[in-house]
Design a protein that fits this description.
The complex is a heterodimer of chains A (320) and B (159). Chain A is of the alpha/beta class. In chain A, 38% of the residues lie in helices and 14% in strands. In chain A, strand 6, helix 8 and strand 7 form a beta-alpha-beta unit. The radius of gyration of chain B is 18 Å and the shape is globular. The chains are: A alpha/beta (320), B alpha+beta (159). The complex binds zinc ion.
């Protein structure tokens, strides 16, 4: 399927929108490719329009694990569309600290709101929350598992800049072993005719089962283990944070950390602009001297996060 | 019930066919004790249970066999056996007649059968049933419906 179809006719638009009403968004696996593209198309429409279509609706933002960025983004999305937000910012202030089960918390909260956003340290928590209520539940990150709105905003940013996914060459840099953001984005990009380059230290390479799956599907993917030689032939550099905890030897970490820093000098090998992406927060993977580089897209990603969240909230609340 | 009748039954279960209950035959050699454990028959069962290990079998060379008197195995239990010994045959006996004979089959969804090995999986922290989707049957591959981790046959840990 081409990722840049002509805009859907009003009939199919309504049909597609109907599929999302009351629906949970817990995993990218739940999206068919046409649904994924529909969310991106609709997001382009929603990027500009801020009508109060969610007036009178209440969102419960349940952050059992703190994530200021994601929480504020959902809050802003809801507020932009005239809705209201209740919730908590970390587990310490909620009844979970008193030992209440997740299902019970959700069954309590469902009486106060129209939709639930959940962030939790345990993998599968969003799925469990979704099973505990008839309200739509959106996963805002469950441990190392899924963070579908992050993936959608990454896809949206890429398509916004490059027009389509087909033929794009995307390099992933850094911790490819533990980064759920990378896994999920790779899985989604593999649905289109893209070419993937994975650059990581050997101990942080992409997990074997993901690689096997890509090979089985005939996706063009290759691995590189030398970060000082950036792949020449790419359109996008997607970098992630390398965490110190992953290295038993701190010296090893220091070496790797510096090798994976992107700056103007490193990008001088590219004759034309490349897109530089990062899920944020960055530590030192991207030098501040890249912030005014024309390919720097990481702050745009944050902005697009509000847009795709506006779209999803409108869809699941039946306001499209 | 007269005591002597009970005693008579206890003597005969070991050597003859069942009157009522389940016969699990053609268990792969060496799996009998595991099946017993999975079915919870290894400790304090109220039903008479007979087990045969490493019996001669024309089909398998060696096989294990379990007879459970006065108890019919449920679908959920059958699913557990399907993962340990897929070639097993089960017969439900009522009044000495085989009323149902079937092979265990791995269903599309395994509920409360397999433990998720991921320590961060919500199924290991909340009081919920584990749930796995079967991705492949030929070389067994399952995916936890909660944390979405895939596991291969070697890593399957039964509940
Ligand atoms: Zn799991």
């Amino acid at each position: 399927m081409n990722s840049r179809q002509s805009p859907a006719s009003p009939a199919t638009r309504a049909e597609m929108a109907a599929r999302f009403v009351g629906r949970d968004v817990t995993s990218m696996r739940d999206f068919t490719t046409d649904e994924l593209l529909f969310v991106l198309d609709l997001s382009e429409e929603f990027e500009r329009a801020d009508e109060p279509r969610l007036k009178g609706k209440i969102l419960a933002n349940l952050f059992f694990e703190a994530s200021t960025r994601t929480r504020l983004s959902f809050h802003a999305a809801m507020a932009r569309l005239g809705g209201q937000v209740i919730g908590f910012a970390d587990a310490n202030v909620s009844s979970v600290s008193k030992g209440e089960s997740l299902s019970d918390t959700i069954r309590m909260v469902e009486n106060y709101c129209d939709a639930i956003v959940i962030r939790h340290k345990f993998e599968g928590a969003a799925r469990l929350a979704a099973e505990s209520t008839h309200l739509p539940v959106i996963n805002a990150g469950d441990g190392a598992n899924q963070h579908p709105t992050q993936t959608l905003l990454d896809l949206y940013t890429i398509r916004r800049i490059h027009g389509a996914f087909e033929g794009l060459r995307v390099a992933f840099l850094g911790d490819l072993r533990y980064s759920r953001t990378v896994h999920s984005l790779i899985e989604s990009l593999a649905r289109f005719n893209t070419e993937l380059v994975c650059v990581s230290p050997p101990q942080l390479r992409l997990p074997a089962d993901i690689l096997d799956d890509l090979f089985e599907r005939g996706v063009r993917v290759r691995e590189e283990f030398n970060p000082t030689i950036l792949p020449q032939d790419v359109d996008i550099l997607y970098t992630t944070r390398i965490q110190k905890e992953r290295f038993p030897d701190p010296v090893e970490y220091e070496k790797v950390k510096n090798a994976y820093q992107l700056d103007r000098k490193a990008l001088s090998i590219y004759p034309t602009r490349v897109t530089v992406m990062h899920p944020l927060p960055r530590v030192n993977e991207i030098s501040p001297d890249l912030d005014d580089y024309e390919g720097a897209a990481y702050f745009q990603q944050a902005k697009n996060g509000v847009t795709v969240r506006k779209t999803l909230l409108s869809l699941v609340l039946g306001a499209v | 019930m007269a005591t002597d009748k009970l005693q008579r039954e206890e003597k005969t279960i070991k050597v003859s066919a069942l009157t009522d209950g389940t016969v699990i035959d053609h268990l792969a050699d060496g799996t009998g004790l595991r099946v017993l454990r999975v079915l919870g028959l290894d400790k304090g069962t109220t039903y008479p249970v007979a087990i045969g290990l490493a019996l001669d079998s024309r089909k398998l060379g060696k096989k294990d066999l379990i007879k459970i008197e006065r108890r019919e195995i449920t679908q959920e239990e059958v699913n557990k056996i399907a993962l340990i010994s897929p070639e097993a045959t089960l017969s439900i006996i009522r009044e000495t007649h085989v009323v149902r004979k079937f092979r265990p089959e791995i269903p599309d969804l395994l509920e409360s059968v397999v433990r998720c090995l991921n320590p961060s999986c919500v199924s290991n922290h909340e009081r919920i049933k584990s749930r796995f989707r079967v991705l492949r049957r030929d070389s067994l591959r399952l995916r936890c419906e909660y944390c979405e981790r895939a596991i291969a046959a070697d890593d399957v840990e039964l509940l």
